# Entry
Amino acid sequence: MKGLILAGGFAKRLGPIGAELPKAMLVAEGDTILNHLIRKLEAEKIEPIISTNKKFENYFKGYKNVLVEPAMAEGEKLGAVSAIDYAIKQLKINEDLLVVCVDNYFSSSLKGFVSSYTGELLVGVYYVGQRPDMKAEEMATVKFEGSERYPPPKQSFLITDFKEKVKPPLSEYVGVGIYVLPKRVFPVLDKFCKMKKQDAPGFFIQHLLEQGEKVGGYLFSGEWYDISHKTYLQAFRDARLVKSDDRYVVCDKALGKSLVLSITILHAGKQTSGHSHPVAEVYFFVEGEGEIELDGRRQRVKSKDVIPIKPNQFHRVYNTSDRELIFVCAFEKYGERG
# Structure
């Protein structure tokens, strides 16, 4: 079995952040989403293949088995299903394929999911009934024997219905963008793409069910979320891009007439310019680790640290790690930023 990580999207839901940085490189729980997925695949002795696009190709230069689609913009990209078909053809894959969308963070391993595979198409499932921040009708929902309650009778089950974004949802169980495709469905996949059907993976699952294919489900436990749903990223969907270079991505969002909320994604090994200004501000470090300099003194910072900065106090942030350092700051307007 091979593993295909779909990382070719342009993250429109993340506004200016998604335009400047691939979701694969966003940090969650101490590491990039991509690195989490690679480790989970390798733990099951599954070779990872990364599918990305031409625009963000440079972010993946340090990784093995990278397939670059020619797209430079949203309108040129392959959809998720077509990207799978493209990878199968380009790499001449002739074995079962575990596919995972790079949006996914999940705390559990892939061991139970892989062990439950019996040769039928397999879909990863998660229960969102106790998560008010996740709306089932905005996701792909599934129906199976016992899906009207939690926990279900079994962790593995046959799916009887699967629908993308329907209201009311089929249940409070959602597909999480993790699949195992048996190689025998590759010709069906190719035909589906040629028919120019809707290209989200859920529509292909629906198509297979309609064709009489058996589709299994496996319930993931622990934590799961789509990185696009993180509140600190959602807050900047309509922000203004202030800076983007080899050091960092900076976006600002005005809150009323006097308050500004700003996010900085500081790249590995880089540092901010350093400055002082006449207003106080507060830095909230949300992901990663590094150091902050305050009036010449440096101290370590990491996820969940809060650093108040006094008026006219010089400050500079250093990313001392090999992954992104992300922090949010709030301050009063005191002039135009560059």
In short: The helical segments are 15-20, 33-43, 80-91, 111-115, 186-194, 201-210, 231-234.
